[in-house]
Amino acid sequence: xxxxxxxxxxxxxxxxxxxxxxxxxxxxxxxxxxxxxxxxxxxxxxxxxxxxxxxxxxxxxxxxxxxxxxxxxxxxxxxxxxxxxxxxxxxxxxxxxxxxxxxxxxxxxxxxxxxxxxxxxxxxxxxxxxxxxxxxxxxxxxxxxxxxxxxxxxxxxxxxxxxxxxxxxxxxxxxxxxxxxxxxxxxxxxxxxxxxxxxxxxxxxxxxxxxxxxxxxxxxxxxxxxxxxxxxxxxxxxxxxxxxxxxxxxxxxxxxxxxxxxxxxxxxxxxxxxxxxxxxxxxxxxxxxxxxxxxxxxxxxxxxxxxxxxxxxxxxxxxxxxxxxxx
Length: 327
Description:
Number of strands: 14
Number of domains: 2
Strand content: 15-25%
CATH architecture of the largest domain: Sandwich
Structural class: alpha+beta
Order of helices and strands: EHEEEEHEEEEEEHEEEHHHHHHHHH
Shape: globular
């Protein structure tokens, strides 16, 4: 895979990540739909909306935009959202949309029929195909748009026509790449900091593994997807290569192989935990060394102290006291 091509329609190539939030709460009832449509046209994609029984729309959306991706967490009362052929002609998007249902259900209408999505499912669709979505019980969704050129290059799959339904889990109650991707989108929309380049790399890798598994056997995508999962579970002392392999749908041997140039899985996880521990020990908030060790996934205080000293040349307590002295 090469360099990412130039960005999202109407997104300046030099732009870094930007976050924004909009809610219809507090907006005059007569203007809520108008302003909601205007906001979504800027933040995600042009749609027209209406409530089912003419009520004032209650909706909130949190967004993060990077040069190539747009991410959102959307909650709203019952309503209908439509992207008609006329609207597509006037405002082509050129994107692929992934929507993950967190609660309730969604009915999506296309010319060839209707599909019902429930919590734990996701739908990948072409935003330039006419559709209508009904949220009879409201919605709690995560959404991600990717330019078709980026999708085709990095997911290495044809754009779905008009849609493809995917599961977030890997079966048997285990999270899959889709669940990891959903958590990453949700956390980013909620304001969790993440380097923009790493965010794009992890999102595209997770999307590739989610859509193409088990065909996505390239080590680069698997590594980025595994790293995203590890970052989400650093606080869990039971994190292991076995669990990572189960999420990716590959063998434990393959997980060891993709981390071989990074000192192995255990080394990479410990290194990330130590970096997190140093940040926490250096932060203004007061916390004990033991608490920080637990928050970073170290089950043994003595082991934490030993590897911390090996890495940084001082004990965790010295790092904590150094923070206090410099405060």
